[in-house]
Amino acid sequence: MAGQQPAPTISRLLNLVPDAPEQVLSLLSAHPHLASEQDGHGYSLLHAAASYSHLPLLRALVQAYHVSPDITDEDNETPLFVVESPAVAECLVTELGANVSWRNDEDQTAEEKIEAEGDWPLVAAYLRSAAGGGNADASAPAATAPSENGVDGVRVPPPLPPNVRIDMSTVEASSIDESEAPDPEFRRRIEELAARDDFQGEEGQRQLRELVTDAVTGLAADGQRRDVRRRVG
Hints:
Region (Disordered): 133-163
Strand order of the largest sheet: 1-2
Protein name: Ankyrin repeat protein
Largest sheet: 2 strands, antiparallel
CATH class: Mainly Alpha
Organism: Coniosporium apollinis (strain CBS 100218) (Rock-inhabiting black yeast)
Pfam family, one: Ank_5
InterPro entries: Ankyrin_rpt, Ankyrin_rpt-contain_sf
């Protein structure tokens, strides 16, 4: 028929995810089979939605189109491996049932890989608490000792103490979409605070609460996104 639009492909939908997730949802309503499609590298719409922090698309893919939250790419990595925001990690784990213990082809969990790369310490801290503490609530991660393993000499910070609560539901999606790697000053401050003798004391926890609140609500610093994100198009 003249003027009829060609059927969309998974490549087209993946290209639309970063800037037009609403259009992806519109196209999926007419072409639902594409929800679980993957490109030549196993990259899926769920990976893309997790990486770009598009929560409505993420929820729709799992809840409406029944895509597995543990769908894997060619490296045997689920969407948790490409998350850049604690709020998205929390959504995948607590709402959508993603497996925090899943291991990729390098025998790493998402938390281990993200921690080793060092770009998203808050995501690593949340995943660590969800995996080890039996409590996947990002507002109250379990306290553990700081890791001595780091990247470029920077120790990965510990999760928050039990009485430090950050309400992830108050983070606007628009601010999450712009999340970038924490700047060196933020990493220096959280490393310095974690090393203090009074870290578990009232003053140390107060300063940690302020620092993490600032980071969660304003992590959109200049920088490059993680290399793990696929280039599409």
